[in-house]
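Practice problem 4.
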C-alpha cells in the first residue's frame, strides 16, 4: 500500500501542476502555447490514465468500497453544485470524483466475479474492452478514436445518460469521466494489483516484486493517503492565489 500511495501521490502532484497551468491560461489569460498543444494533451492524458489505473489497484486493497463510493459521489455532487453557482463556465458534471464513486459501487458488486478471472487474462480483456468502448461518448464502438459501429441515436437523445457514456449534443462539462469506457481502465488497475502487489505472492514472482512490499512511506505516500482532501482544496487554493497575484500585477 505504501507503493500504491506513493504512485497516487506522485500523480496528484502532477494533477495540481496541470490545474495550475489551466488556471493561468483560461482564467488569467497567460500565454502557454505548449499547454494547448500536444505536450499539454499528453501530460493531461497520462495524469487521467494513471489516476484511474492506480485507483483501481488501490480498490482491490481497500476496505468498505460502498461507503467510500457514496462519499466520493457526494463530494462529486458538491463540486457540481459549487461550479454551477460560482464558475458556470467551468461546470463539472460527473467528473472524476463522481466516476470513482460510481465505479466503487459497481466494483463492490462485481469484484467477487472479477476475482474468478486470472489476473493476466482479466487485464488483457479489460484493455480490449477499453479500446473497443473508447468512442462510445462520440457515438459508437470501434478501436480507439475510430468508430466502426454506430450505436442507436436514441441513447444520445436523452439528457440523463451522460454519466453512463451517452451525452447529448448540448452536454457540457470541463471534467467528464463517464462509466463507459473508463470503468475498464479501473478494472485494469484491479488486475494490475493482482499481478504485481499481491501480499501472498510466492516463488519467482515474489522475488520480482519484493521491492514493492519493502517500499517505505514518504511525502508522496502521505499525499496519496490524503488524496481526496487534497483534491478538494487544491483548485480553490490555486485559483485564489492566481487571483491574488493577478491583482498585485504579477500576471
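Answer key:
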Amino acid at each position: 500500500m505504501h507503493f500504491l500511495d506513493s504512485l497516487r501521490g506522485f500523480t496528484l502532484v502532477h494533477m495540481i501542476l496541470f490545474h495550475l497551468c489551466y488556471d493561468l491560461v483560461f482564467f488569467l489569460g497567460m500565454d502557454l502555447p505548449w499547454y494547448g498543444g500536444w505536450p499539454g494533451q499528453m501530460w493531461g492524458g497520462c495524469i487521467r490514465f494513471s489516476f484511474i489505473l492506480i485507483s483501481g489497484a488501490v480498490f482491490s486493497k481497500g476496505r468498505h468500497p460502498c461507503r467510500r463510493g457514496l462519499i466520493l459521489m457526494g463530494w462529486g455532487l458538491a463540486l457540481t453544485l459549487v461550479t454551477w453557482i460560482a464558475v458556470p463556465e467551468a461546470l463539472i458534471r460527473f467528473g472524476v470524483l463522481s466516476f470513482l464513486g460510481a465505479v466503487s459501487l459497481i466494483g463492490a458488486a462485481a469484484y467477487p466475479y472479477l476475482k474468478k478471472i486470472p489476473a493476466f487474462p482479466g487485464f488483457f480483456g479489460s484493455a480490449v474492452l477499453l479500446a473497443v468502448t473508447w468512442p462510445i461518448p462520440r457515438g459508437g464502438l470501434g478501436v480507439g478514436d475510430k468508430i466502426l459501429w454506430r450505436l442507436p441515436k436514441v441513447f444520445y437523445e436523452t439528457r440523463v445518460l451522460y454519466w453512463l457514456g451517452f451525452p447529448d449534443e448540448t452536454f457540457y462539462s470541463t471534467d467528464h469521466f463517464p462509466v463507459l469506457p473508463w470503468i475498464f481502465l479501473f478494472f485494469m488497475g484491479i488486475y494490475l494489483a493482482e499481478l504485481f502487489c499481491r501480499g501472498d505472492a510466492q516463488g519467482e514472482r515474489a522475488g520480482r516484486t519484493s521491492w514493492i512490499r519493502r517500499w517505505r512511506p514518504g511525502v508522496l505516500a502521505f499525499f496519496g493517503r490524503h488524496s481526496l482532501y487534497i483534491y478538494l482544496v487544491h483548485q480553490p487554493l490555486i485559483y485564489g492565489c492566481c487571483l491574488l497575484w493577478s491583482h498585485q500585477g504579477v500576471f
